[in-house]
TrEMBL record:
<keyword id="KW-0808">Transferase</keyword>
<comment type="pathway">
    <text>Cofactor biosynthesis; coenzyme F420 biosynthesis.</text>
</comment>
<feature type="binding site">
    <location>
        <position position="139"/>
    </location>
    <ligand>
        <name>phosphoenolpyruvate</name>
    </ligand>
</feature>
<keyword id="KW-0342">GTP-binding</keyword>
<protein>
    <recommendedName>
        <fullName>Phosphoenolpyruvate guanylyltransferase</fullName>
        <ecNumber>2.7.7.105</ecNumber>
    </recommendedName>
</protein>
<dbReference type="InterPro" id="IPR029044">
    <property type="entry name" value="Nucleotide-diphossugar_trans"/>
</dbReference>
<feature type="binding site">
    <location>
        <position position="155"/>
    </location>
    <ligand>
        <name>phosphoenolpyruvate</name>
    </ligand>
</feature>
<dbReference type="GO" id="GO:0005525">
    <property type="term" value="F:GTP binding"/>
</dbReference>
<keyword id="KW-0547">Nucleotide-binding</keyword>
<dbReference type="GO" id="GO:0043814">
    <property type="term" value="F:phospholactate guanylyltransferase activity"/>
</dbReference>
<dbReference type="GO" id="GO:0052645">
    <property type="term" value="P:F420-0 metabolic process"/>
</dbReference>
<dbReference type="Pfam" id="PF01983">
    <property type="entry name" value="CofC"/>
</dbReference>
<feature type="binding site">
    <location>
        <position position="158"/>
    </location>
    <ligand>
        <name>phosphoenolpyruvate</name>
    </ligand>
</feature>
<keyword id="KW-0548">Nucleotidyltransferase</keyword>
<dbReference type="InterPro" id="IPR002835">
    <property type="entry name" value="CofC"/>
</dbReference>
<comment type="function">
    <text>Guanylyltransferase that catalyzes the activation of phosphoenolpyruvate (PEP) as enolpyruvoyl-2-diphospho-5'-guanosine, via the condensation of PEP with GTP. It is involved in the biosynthesis of coenzyme F420, a hydride carrier cofactor.</text>
</comment>
<comment type="similarity">
    <text>Belongs to the CofC family.</text>
</comment>
């Protein structure tokens, strides 16, 4: 069972504003890019993933993520996160017949391919399914089966909104790395404790040096 993942990424100079007390304006865009690179690299190593498509208008992120093997879809219709995801999912389905599509957050720097495979295998049992984030308020993955629309409701309180939309909440064991998104300094410390990918580790080392 193979999936196409759609990963949304807003322009790096506006990304991760809630990390401004942890990483200053000089470091934050690089940190957001490192999260996306580690997320995409781990996703591409997952046996359940056929391909990864990043929906973004950021030129540097597009180059760096394409170099890892991701496809790039421009951010249309420029009406926020859910519109961008719905558009990219529609592009994917029209270009690859019978695709299974899942939206995956770009801020999962501890992502492990085997844990992502476990989540996608669980999602395959349902027409639409989602994984709540570590904080139990948001969502890190929303999956739609063949012929089903994604109908994304990411953003504030997305766990409750995805539940209300009829998507099945997934609760597989041992998938912490897929749930650990990074929005705050505490989230970053939790991700570092799980073990992050090499690009995030390198930027985090610079952050720690800057703190001293
Ligand atoms: N393509 C696209 N991606 C978006 C858009 N808005 C948000 N995203 C991405 O969706 C994910 C969750 O977005 P947010 O929580 O709003 O933004 P963030 O950069 O993670 O963090 P904050 O700035 O602290 O809110 C991140 O990967 C964002 O880069 C958008 O309008 N278009
Ligand atoms: C957009 C979401 O992610 P974040 O935690 O980055 O706000 C969400 O959880 O729906």
């Amino acid at each position: 069972m193979q999936w196409t993942l759609v990963v949304p990424l807003k322009p790096l100079d506006r990304a991760k504003s809630r990390l401004s007390d942890t990483a200053d304006d000089g470091l934050r865009p690089g940190l957001a890019l490192a999260f996306a690179q580690d997320t995409v690299a781990a996703a591409l190593e997952c046996p359940a993933v056929r391909d990864v498509v990043v929906v973004t208008d950021d030129a540097l992120a597009s180059r760096e993520l394409a170099a890892l093997g991701a496809g790039i879809v421009p951010d249309e219709p420029r009406d926020g996160l859910n519109a961008a995801l719905a558009h990219a999912a529609a592009v994917v389905v029209s270009s690859r017949r019978a695709a299974r599509v899942a939206a995956l957050n770009a801020d999962l720097p501890a992502l492990r391919p085997s844990e992502l495979a476990r989540v996608l295998d669980a999602a395959a049992e349902f027409p639409r399914a989602f994984l709540p984030d570590a904080a139990e308020i948001g969502t890190t993955l929303l999956a739609a089966g063949r012929g089903r629309e994604l109908r994304p409701h990411f953003g504030t309180a997305s766990r409750a909104r995805h539940r209300e939309s009829g998507a099945v909440e997934l609760l597989p064991d041992a998938v912490d790395s897929v749930r650990q998104d990074v929005d705050t300094g505490d989230d970053l410390r939790a991700a570092l404790a799980l073990g992050v990918g090499p690009r995030t580790a390198a930027v985090a080392a610079r952050l720690l040096t800057a703190e001293q």
